[in-house]
From TrEMBL:
Biological source species: Coffea arabica
UniProt keyword terms in alphabetical order: Membrane, Transmembrane, Transmembrane helix
Compartments where found: Membrane
A GO cellular component entry from the record: endoplasmic reticulum
Lipid bilayer topology: Multi-pass membrane protein
InterPro entries per UniProt: CysZ/EI24
Protein name: Protein EI24 homolog isoform X2
GO biological process, one term: macroautophagy
TM stretches of this protein: 52-79, 111-132, 177-200, 206-225, 246-264
Length: 342
């Protein structure tokens, strides 16, 4: 039993460190006051954020509320599905008519989805994707021009920390440009395979929902910080290394975003996410995650959590796809594969 002492002590120390970093990530995600400060600094940011709220909140979620609270009850009143004499549907003399009413009511609701909800969903997805980039960019400029929330003058790009490198991280010669293009392609593949991994884990019996929740938290945390890292010119390898080395922090950061949508229907979840996501993008843009993580690490020297290969499966699949295109003589992919030792 004594031989179990040191391993258990190490496990307790690492569990404590992971819990505290998770709480730090959660606290950072909840610093929504930054959104107000940055919007006051940038008129463009205020407009874009307001457009997201108007489209996804007022129009999209408002349409769902109108359907559930007004349109469906009115249709049930006009086209009832119950016999007026409180007979069962089989014994009711108007059973055939009621079945027709039910079919007609269902058809009208489906038409509402086909001609309103689904086109609105596609429009919202396209516009929101464009607006999220603008929101991250305007928020980033608000920070670089005015400093972080609560600070008088601080330019994050001047800090020589792993996640705040300037564009000098990437060489600007032809090979550097090709690597930049290849990194964008690789990033899309990586996150696509990771999303598929998240989707598949949801079908695992018993523990699937818990794993799905954790992976979704990491995925949305990465999405939120990726805007900032891209604007800072941080290379993809350094992004993945920093993310996987501080997995507990980012699990905590992504948790509030997922909690808000995890228990809703898919359409409602999308509408809620589309409202909250730009807020978390701005909190991530204003976060000094490297400094927050470095502070407790000084106290736990020798008990580091270590790097967790979160993207291992997605990375492997993405690199196999890129290797296939390399075999087809893709000049764009070769520099990236060379940098990845493939």
């Amino acid at each position: 039993m004594e031989s179990l002492g040191p391993p258990m002590a190490t496990l307790r120390a690492k569990s404590k460190q992971a819990s505290l970093l998770w709480l730090e990530g959660l606290r950072e995600a909840c610093c929504l006051h930054r959104v107000v400060i940055y919007c006051l600094r940038s008129r463009e940011l205020t407009i874009r954020t307001g457009q997201c709220f108007l489209l996804n909140g007022f129009i999209f979620l408002g349409s769902i509320l109108t359907l559930k609270a007004v349109i469906i009850p009115v249709l049930q009143w006009i086209l009832p599905n119950q016999c007026p004499d409180k007979h069962s549907l089989e014994s009711c003399p108007f059973g055939g008519t009621l079945r027709f009413y039910s079919f007609l009511r269902l058809g009208l609701v489906q038409l509402f989805y086909v001609f309103w909800f689904y086109p609105l969903y596609i429009l919202s997805y396209i516009l929101s994707t464009l607006w999220y980039n603008d929101i991250a960019k305007y928020g980033f400029f608000a920070i670089t021009n005015y400093g972080h929330a609560g600070e008088e003058s601080h330019n994050e790009l001047q800090s020589p920390t792993p996640q705040n490198r300037s564009h000098a991280d990437k060489p600007m010669d032809l090979e550097g440009i090709l690597i930049g293009i290849a990194e964008q392609v690789y990033s899309v593949l990586l996150l696509s395979f990771f999303f598929f991994q998240v989707y598949v884990t949801g079908f695992v019996p018993y523990i699937g929902k818990a794993i799905n929740f954790l992976l979704l938290s990491w995925m949305y945390a990465y999405y939120c910080f990726d805007y900032k890292w891209n604007l800072s010119g941080l290379s993809l390898d350094k992004r993945l290394d920093f993310f996987e080395s501080n997995w507990a922090f980012f699990a905590g950061f992504g948790c509030p975003c997922i909690l808000a949508i995890f228990f809703f229907s898919p359409l409602v979840s999308y509408g809620v996410m589309a409202i909250l996501y730009p807020l978390f993008v701005l909190t991530a843009t204003g976060s000094e995650a490297d400094k927050i993580i470095a502070l407790p690490r000084r106290q736990w020297e020798g008990f580091g959590l270590g790097r967790l290969p979160i993207f291992f499966a997605a990375d492997y699949a993405s690199l196999r796809v890129l290797s296939f295109f390399q075999c087809r003589s893709s000049q764009i992919m070769r520099p990236l594969l060379k940098s990845r030792n493939l």
